[in-house]
Each structure stands twice: as C-alpha cells, then as structure tokens.
Design goal:
The chain is an all-alpha fold. Helix content is about 60%, strand content about 0%. It has a domain of about 220 residues. The N terminus is likely disordered.
Length: about 375
C-alpha cells in the first residue's frame, strides 16, 4: 500500500516530478452541428461566471413584459389591432421565455441540491398558485375545483417546466436532441392528449426548451454582433407586418399549443406543416428579439432576476382587467392595455413585491428536507 509523500524539509528543494502530457481536446461541433449535437457538460463555474449576465436579465425582463401585455390584450381581440398584436406576441413570447429557461437549466442534474431547488422553486409554488387562482371561482361561483394534475390558467408553465427540467439529462445524452424534440412536437398534434400534466403544451413547446439547452455563450455572442442586431430588428418588423396581414386568416389555436390537429379541424399532414411553420417562426422571432436585446447593464437589469414573480402574480391583475375589457375594446384601450402591461410587469419585479410575496414564489422549504451530507475530502480519515 502506498503512503502519502512526506513534506519537504524547510529549505530543501523538492524532487522534480515527471511531466504528464496533456491530452488534446476533442473536436467540438460548430455551426449548425452545434445545435443538433448533444451539449458537453459545462465546466465548473468560476468566480466571474457566477456573476449575473446583464444580457440574460435584460432578455428575461423584456420577455415578461411581452407575456403580461399579451395576456392583457387577449380580451381586447375584437379590436383588429389588438388581435394582430396578440397573434404576433403569442407566436414567440412563451417560446422566448421557455428557451431562456432551457438555457439556464443546462447544468441541471439529479443531485440532491438541484432536486430540492426543483421542488421548492417549481413544485411548491405550483401548488400554492394552483390553489390561489382557484379561490376566486369559490367566491364568485361557489365552486372550488382543484386538480393538481390539470394545471389551471397560467400555472401550466410551472408544470411543463418541471417536466422539461427533469428531462434535461436525457436530452444532453442524445446525438440529435432538437430533431427528436421537433418530431415529438409534431407527433403530439396527431393525438388527443389529456389535459393532465399540460401534455399538449409540454410536448408542443418542447423544442424551444431543448433549443435553450443547446445554446452556448458563444451562440449568444453571435447575436450581439451589429449586423445581426440590424437583421433582428428587420425580422421583428417583418413579423409584426405579417401578423397584421395574416392574423385574421390563421386560427388562434395554432399559437396556443393546446389542441390537436383534429380538434383544430385539419388533417395530420396539414397540421404538421402548420406546427413546423409555427416552430420555425417562433425560433426566428425569439432569436431576433434576443439580437435587439441590450447586452450592457441597464436600469431594468436587476428586475430581470425576478421575472417569476411577475409571471405568477400578474394573473390576478389580468382577472381584474377582464371586468373592464368590454369598455376598453377600442384602439385607445389597446394602447392603454399595453402601457398598463409594462407598468404591471415592472412593478411585480421590484424588491418590495419580492419581499412581500417571497413566501409564495420562492418558499423556504428547508424544514422539509433532511440535512445535506457534504462529501468527505480525499484522504480524510474516518
């Protein structure tokens, strides 16, 4: 049995050790292959890498504004301008949010610490807000209907994100994860999936989560190039123009990802082609949106760290807004709804709101878990 080297005497010169050649790094995929090959494990975080990236926080803040605005103008769709904006936003606002969630989930494993964060950050808030959004129905209709397997209202995202994040290690082992995810998305449209576990949206929007998993910092740096930023602005303007031109001719169900092809009223071939077109449009628009997102620190960068607060809480404001939707169904009302959405999203990301609602959005569940055992150091004696 070998023994550890004895420490060198003071003033003595330690014996030289033979140098060990460093193995050459394997070739990594580039270009389009980088999006279809499995992503290697990320290196251990350094002190600098732990710092928040203002680009991601800016993107998250702007993304939650789109989500809140989209929900507010949903009840104003009788106004043609509102329906066009609604169609435009719903084509990519949740795909954008989902892709960012996938990117930030790249290091998820089944370790004890990550599993506990999954429970405290998604599972427990899901239960809390599933109950909270069901309570108004109890007071208004006298009916309390809660089904933890059938998400109500906007809690579907927590359910789907929980399942997507659990599947993260699987996607990172596959050779063509994005191709497989797109295939599953198209196949899901051919079946009458149950509402439990938000199956239609979980499978339908899955490619955007996998796309986020496959993105790397190098890919995001490409989006920050001046020429790409200009192209992104052009794509967004073109997408908005197309939305105004086509919104009345395309069924709204396509941008909601809730129904099968048969339920929408088309055959599977037409439905698959339409779903593939919506996936492509969503990916193009979310990339364009990221391209025009500021990469420097801004006044709203700090708010981007609290977008889950705005997502989970803004639904209560939307429910109140629905009471006055008929009176606001005018072009001026649409403008007011957009401004109101920006204000609500911003307010719900501020520190006072976070302190007030931290117990529900980020509950402390440490009391429910056993103490984590720290791994023993190499060479430590028992």
């Amino acid at each position: 049995m070998t023994t550890p080297d004895a420490p060198a005497a003071p003033g003595s010169v330690p014996p030289s050790r033979p140098s060990v050649p460093t193995p050459a790094a394997p070739d990594r995929p580039s270009g389009l292959l980088a999006f279809t090959e499995a992503v290697p494990a990320a290196p251990p975080p350094t002190r600098r890498s732990r710092e928040r990236d203002p680009f991601l926080d800016n993107a998250k803040y702007l993304a939650i504004i789109l989500v809140v605005v989209g929900h507010l103008i949903e009840d104003l769709r009788d106004v043609p301008e509102a329906h066009a904006i609604y169609f435009f936003l719903y084509t990519f606002h949740m795909p954008l949010f989902i892709a960012l969630s996938g990117y930030l989930s790249r290091n998820f494993t089944f370790s004890a610490g990550k599993a506990r964060k999954l429970i405290s950050g998604l599972a427990v808030p899901y239960v809390i807000f599933e109950v909270a959004y069901s309570l108004p129905r109890l007071f208004l209709d006298g009916d309390l209907e809660i089904s933890l397997l059938d998400p109500y209202y906007l809690t579907w995202f927590l359910m789907s994100l929980f399942l997507w994040r659990l599947s993260t290690p699987v996607w990172q082992q596959l050779r063509w994860p994005l191709v497989i995810a797109v295939g599953l998305s198209l196949l899901s449209g051919m079946s009458e999936l149950p509402d439990e576990l938000s199956m239609n949206r979980t499978f339908g929007l899955l490619p955007f989560y996998v796309l986020g998993l496959m993105l790397t910092p190098a890919h995001l740096e490409l989006l920050k190039r001046p020429a790409v930023r200009v192209a992104g602005a052009v794509v967004l303007a073109g997408g908005l123009a197309l939305a105004f031109a086509l919104h009345a001719d395309i069924a709204t169900e396509w941008i909601r990802w809730r129904d099968s092809n048969a339920k929408i009223g088309v055959d599977n071939l037409t439905g698959s082609a339409m779903r593939l077109a919506m996936l492509t449009a969503g990916a193009a628009l979310l990339a364009a949106f990221l391209a025009v997102t500021p990469s420097r620190r801004t006044w709203f960068s700090g708010l981007g760290a609290a977008t889950m607060y705005a997502y989970l809480l803004h639904g209560f404001f939307v429910k109140v807004f629905q009471v006055y939707a008929k009176e606001m169904s005018t072009p001026a009302g649409v403008v007011l709804a957009v401004l109101l959405g920006v204000a609500i999203a911003t307010l719900l990301c501020t520190p006072p709101v976070r302190r007030l609602t931290h117990w529900a959005v980020e509950p402390d569940t440490s009391w429910a878990f056993t103490a984590l055992r720290r791994p023993s150091k190499p060479g430590a004696r028992g």
